[in-house]
Every structure is written in structure tokens, then in C-alpha cells.
Write a structure and sequence with these properties.
This protein has helices spanning about 15-20, 35-50, 65-70, 95-105; strands at about 5-10, 25-30, 55-60, 75-80, 85-90. The protein has about 120 residues and is α/β, with parallel strands linked by helices. The chain has a single domain, classed as Glutaredoxin (3-Layer(aba) Sandwich), CATH 3.40.30. A 5-stranded mixed sheet has the order 1-3-2-4-5. Strand 4 and strand 5 (about 85-90) form a beta hairpin. The longest helix has 16 residues, at about 35-50. The protein is globular and about 35 Å long.
Length: about 120
């Protein structure tokens, strides 16, 4: 388990993600999801390399309320939140460079992030 990626819950989601000081990338995940497990090192790298971005994961089986609130049906689903609002959503495992491109498109990273 990473110390850089926050394990969000139904109980702390609003405080940590919606009222957080930084834009936040949330992975909606499940223990049984193979592609989700593959994303763990990628998310850890993003959390370390992008100090302006918070990274969290939320287990949908243990925290169904938040998953239902955002209509999450497939794992992994990623939602980028900024200022308490979802600004970008994408589904499926992908390499770090594609996630960086999604984050750049959502205007939550610096302009050079897209080129990595």
C-alpha cells in the first residue's frame, strides 16, 4: 500500500477530495479488479512526481455511496476533481503518459506534463 495515495472512504471523501486544497485524481477500484491492481504503481508515481495533484483511491465494494453518487459502474474508473467538482472522467487502465495527457486536458497540471 502506498503512503502517497490516500485510501478514500465514504466517510472522508467530501473532506479529503471535494474540499481538498489540490485537484484530486480518484481511482474507483475493487480488490477483485486486475487492471486496478496494475494501476497501483502508476498512481504512486503520479502522487510522487506531481506535487500539485492529490491522488486517492476508493474501493467501491467497501464504499458504495460515493461510487453510486458518481455513477461508477466499471473499474477502474478515474475522476478528476477540482474545486469540489468532477472535471474529467475516464475508464480503464492506461499508461502514465495517457493519464498525464488526461490530466493536462483537464487543466490540472502544468503545460509540460502532457509532453512526458
Amino acid at each position: 500500500m502506498s503512503t502517497h495515495v490516500h485510501d478514500a472512504t465514504d466517510a472522508d471523501f467530501d473532506a479529503v477530495v471535494l474540499r481538498g486544497e489540490r485537484p484530486t485524481l480518484v481511482e474507483f477500484t475493487a480488490d477483485w479488479c486486475g487492471p486496478c491492481r496494475q494501476m497501483a504503481p502508476v498512481l504512486d508515481q503520479l502522487a510522487i512526481e506531481e506535487p500539485g495533484l492529490a491522488v486517492a483511491k476508493l474501493d467501491v465494494d467497501h464504499n458504495p455511496a460515493v461510487a453510486a453518487r458518481y455513477g461508477v459502474l466499471s473499474m477502474p474508473t478515474f475522476i478528476v476533481f477540482r474545486d469540489g467538482e468532477p472535471v474529467k472522467q475516464f475508464v480503464g487502465a492506461r499508461p502514465k503518459r495517457r493519464i498525464l495527457a488526461e490530466l493536462a486536458d483537464a487543466n490540472v497540471l502544468g503545460t509540460n506534463a502532457h509532453a512526458r
